[in-house]
Amino acid sequence: QVQLVESGGGLVQTGGSLRLSCAASGRTSSTYVMGWFRQAPGKEREFVAAISRSGGTTYYADSVKGRFTISRGNAKNTVYLQMNSLKPEDTADYSCAAGLTDVYPSAPYEYGYWGQGTQVTVSS
Fold first, then answer.
1. CB atoms within 10 A of CB 86
2. What is the number of helices (H) and of strands (E) in the chain?
3. CA 124, CA 118: separation in Å to the nearest integer?
4. What are the beta bridge partners of residue 39?
């Protein structure tokens, strides 16, 4: 089993920045594709960003391109999401996910492990 723990959420004003972190523990002998998803109240979960196992390829939802940056940390299976120019519509619970392939990186079914989530609230 792999456990994922997110941190870094909080309350920020429009235009502000936050950096989310996700660290994996447990059976981390494999290097995973890491992704971020978010879910706002009353809405379906949506893909935000993902990064390949090597870190050489990144994927972004159109809604966050140019504002968010996903990166891998030095520790194995650690991932960050730098969020700049935040908007009220970015308000959601953000979850980290880990999977073995990035054939369809925006598809939740690609990911076998999920964190509990961290809340991001952007005030107008």
1. 22
2. 0, 11
3. 20
4. 93
Paired tokens of 73 = 């940390």
In contact, 86 and 18? CB cutoff 8 Å: yes
pLDDT at 20: 98
Determine the distance from the C-alpha atom of residue 62 to the mean position of all C-alpha atoms in its chain, rounded to a whole number. 15
Bridge partners for 81 per DSSP: 20, 70
Per-residue pLDDT tens over the stretch 79-113:
999 999 999 999 999 999 999 888 899 999 999 99
Q: The tokens of 63 are what?
A: 């809604």
Only one residue has tokens 């076998």, namely 112
Query: What strands, in cross-sheet order, belong to the sheet with 2-7?
Result: 2-7, 18-26, 78-83, 68-72
Instruction: Give the residue with greater pLDDT, 102 vs 116.
Output: 116
Q: Where are the alpha helices (DSSP H) in 1-124?
A: none
CA distance 102 to 17: 27
Mean pLDDT, to the nearest integer, of 48-56?
95
Closest CA to 4 of 43, 45, 37: 37
